[in-house]
Amino acid sequence: MSNTTTDHDEIRRWVESKGGKPAAVDRTHEGGDVGIIRIMFPDSPQSQHGSLVEIGWDEFFQQFDEAELALIYDEKSLFSKLVGRDTVEKREHGDNHASRHEGRDDRASSPSSGKSGAGEGGDDLKSREYRDADGKVHHHTHAYMKEHKD
Q1: How many helices (H) and strands (E) does the chain have?
Q2: Percent above pLDDT 70 for the chain
Q3: For residues 142 and 33, is the Cβ–Cβ distance under 8 A?
Q4: Residue 139 has what DSSP assignment?
């Protein structure tokens, strides 16, 4: 049975009890921007963390709150997933297919330009969004958005 929380103390307690650490995807963690956050379990052979860099809890929770994330985790295993709080709310109300990617306008980001169509300065995930050639959604770092501001 999984639990969902936004409580910093609960998250830290669970992660540390499993030998986990706060992390960021290395290629997104630059120039003072935390980037995409993850939880890594360095002692677990199944954990893939080669592209992750350990960060402090303050950095982790700042990005966690700015991106309005929640943690879904299983008390009895290493399963965890960071999801949008809006997704959690929709799923709690019966929308079992809810996700932040559902219903997005494909015209909002252009694979050829690699830039988001929002152009709002890069302060939120939606404005930093772009799709790769395979249609997968990614997000530019704040540093990238600042450097490439229109």
Answers
A1: 4, 8
A2: 55
A3: yes
A4: E
What's residue 15's pLDDT? 96
Domain edges within the chain: 2-85, 106-147
pLDDT tens digits, 66-108:
999 999 999 999 999 998 888 777 766 665 555 655 544 433 3
pLDDT score of 146? 66
**Spatial CB neighbours of 140, under 8 Å, sequence gap ≥ 6:** 115, 116, 122, 128, 130, 148
Of 110, 107, 129, residue with least CA distance to 120 = 129
Please tell me the predicted confidence (pLDDT) of residue 110: 33
Q: Please check whether residue 80 is in contact with residue 71, taking contact to mean a CB–CB distance below 8 angstroms.
A: yes
Which residue, chain included where needed, has tokens 């992660």?
15
Say how many C-beta atoms besides its own lie within 10 A of residue 53's C-beta: 16
Would you say 137 and 26 are in contact if contact means Cβ atoms under 8 Å apart?
Answer: no
Torsion from C-alpha of 106, 136, 25, 34, nearest 10 degrees:
0
Q: Evaluate whether 145 touches 130 at the Cβ level (below 8 Å).
A: no
Q: Which helix (H) or strand (E) holds 74?
A: strand 69-74
